[in-house]
Specification:
Helix content: 40-55%
Number of strands: 9
Largest sheet: 9 strands, mixed
Order of helices and strands: HEHEEEHHEHHEHEHHEEHHHH
Shape: globular
Distance between the termini: 37 Å
Length: about 350
């Protein structure tokens, strides 16, 4: 599909409402049928390529059963977090909640609130305030949603390292993108790389990614059959792509000092963690695990994922996510903020304007 922007603007591609509803269902079915036909044809070749380049394996039922006992004995901990924030004229307000839990119901919850004034507190100079707010709008000052998410991801991993259980599962990449960047002006790179070294030195820690932004991994995973897994490549390859860039990725926007620090980190963590894929039934997932314990950790993830074959994702991580969603609901947080604004007679001016639209 080699369209340019103007191709979509041609009037003959736009239909009246009547034409749309008369033809939409049939056209949609035809489009999906054509895409599916092409996908199935390519899937055969993709599987051949997968077998040629990698060693695809079947799960060992006995090993999965053995590791399932570790789950039931409470020797596995899963961690997940959630964050909520609102950016108001009366200030930026945020809450982070993190839950770590095992099947023995040994549970720990952590929460933090973050508050930052919208304007500068130490001056009443209007021009200075306007300059500050313009910089805030450009993302050059102040706390942002991405900062809050990075703090959450850091503390998820920090807390799970402190848990006594032998096996540890985290949601997502072991060292997510938000932690690799160091969060710019917050100067968090050194702390994040220090944490990264600890995470990647763990023998019994794995990250399982519910969804990936990398289409090639999703497509490659579609070639796996139910009950199969594959170890793809060294995790350092992802870190190299982030730092140096490649055919598909822009290099990290680091100053020389940060570049050197990240380069040293990459060199220190080579050949100790792997990226792989596994599939329980219908859907494949990306897994990050220690190279020398990859077989064991992928079987642990598989054993827990078998509890929900339709989704095929570790139940312990979904359990942590469910507790998070209930204890630290974003809607509850926003409702509480609105209640405090109403008490100050500021709700009408500060409430999200979308909530005031007629439906």
């Amino acid at each position: 599909m080699n369209n340019n922007f103007e191709d979509f603007l041609e009037d003959n591609k736009w239909l009246s409402l009547d034409q749309h509803f008369r033809n939409y269902s049939g056209n949609l079915e035809k489009n999906i049928e054509l895409s599916t036909k092409n996908h199935r044809k390519l899937k055969v070749k993709l599987r051949e390529e997968l077998n040629k380049r990698y060693h695809v394996k079947k799960f060992d039922g006995q090993l999965a059963e053995k590791l399932g006992l570790e789950l039931y004995d409470g020797n596995v901990v899963g961690v997940d977090g959630t964050c909520s924030d609102v950016d108001l004229i009366t200030g930026f307000q945020a809450r982070i909640g993190i839950v770590s839990v095992s099947y023995s119901n040994r549970k720990a919850t952590y929460t933090a609130t973050i508050s930052e004034p919208f304007t500068l507190e130490n001056t009443d100079d209007i021009q200075e305030q306007m300059k500050h707010l313009r910089l805030k709008g450009m993302g050059k000052v102040g706390i942002t949603s991405s900062h809050i998410r990075a703090i959450m991801l850091f503390k998820e991993r920090d807390f799970v390292l402190k848990r006594p259980e032998k096996y540890k599962l985290v949601q997502g990449d072991v060292l997510p993108y938000e932690l690799r960047t160091g969060q710019g002006r917050l100067r968090g790179l050194s702390a994040c790389l220090k944490l990264g070294r600890k995470l990647l030195s763990e023998d019994y820690l794995a990250g399982v990614q519910a969804s990936t932004s990398r289409p090639e991994l999703r497509w490659l995973g579609s070639a796996l059959e139910s009950g199969e897994y594959v170890e793809l490549y060294d995790y350092a390859k992802l870190l190299d792509s982030f730092l140096e860039g490649d055919d598909f990725t822009q290099p990290a926007n680091f100053n020389p000092q940060d570049y050197s620090e990240f380069r040293d980190f990459n060199n220190d963590v080579r050949k100790i963690f792997s990226v792989g894929l596994y599939k329980v039934k219908n859907r494949s997932y990306v897994i990050y695990a220690p190279s020398k314990k990859f077989e064991e950790m992928v079987h642990l993830a598989y054993a827990d994922s078998e509890h929900q074959p339709l989704r095929g994702f570790p139940l312990l991580l979904d359990y942590a996510d469910m507790i998070c969603s209930r204890l630290f609901s974003t809607r509850d947080f926003e409702t509480m903020v609105n209640a405090k604004l109403a008490k100050q007679k500021l709700l009408e001016s500060e409430i999200n304007e979308r909530l005031l639209r007629r439906r």
